[in-house]
Amino acid sequence: MEIEFLGTGTSQGVPIIGCKCPVCNSLDFRDKRMRSSIFIKVNNKNFIIDTGPDFRSQLLRAKVDKLDAVLITHPHRDHLSGLDDIRAFNFIQDKVMPVYANSNTIEQINKEFYYCFKEPKYPGVPNIKLFTVGDQPFYFDDVKIIPIKALHYKMPILGFRINNFTYLTDASFLEESEINKIIGSDVFVINALRKKEHLSHFTLAQALDIIKIVNPKQAYLTHIGHQMGFHSQVQDSLPKNVYLAFDGLKLNF
To answer: Would you call 228 helix, strand, or coil by DSSP?
Structure first.
């Protein structure tokens, strides 16, 4: 399996326009983050989780030239608004793009991207097919995908487990039954916005508590705000198997 972090930040992340804080003005490239998204290659299939407003720039930077399916965690615009740029893959690959999400996200896609579904289709609009993800695992060809249900404050959202890899972002609450679905992952990615408590995102301490339960070989923190502090300083404070992710980080396992 190959992983690339396309973005590890948040709309409350870095760089913030006009912000004078030291992190936003850091010269360390690891402190410069686009909105959270990740590329996954497994069984010769390419997936992307979330298509935020930086989506096109992320694809160009990572030189992604093939995409088989898209998974969406939730309908907030920092994770969804770049979906229109799927049209480039429609053109190159000459096929519809499958998009998987829960029911409230599907509803929002139908509203925001209504022009994709109008008949007759206007030439050049994105050609996507929506699939509603429920409680049960599903397959894309030979790839099994296990949905992980979480809450983003009161909003139901999804994480995804593929083989021994689990990705979860924007969560603030996980049922024990959902944590049990993650246990056994060799690599676990979880959101950690900042150190101070937040209404709708895990803090650093809360993320570390869940990582301790899951006990993966490696854990990576994503959806990081500038309030977290400098990458180098925070990394030095983390347990030996936990890492701050950064844009462009690649993993092979």
So the answer is: helix
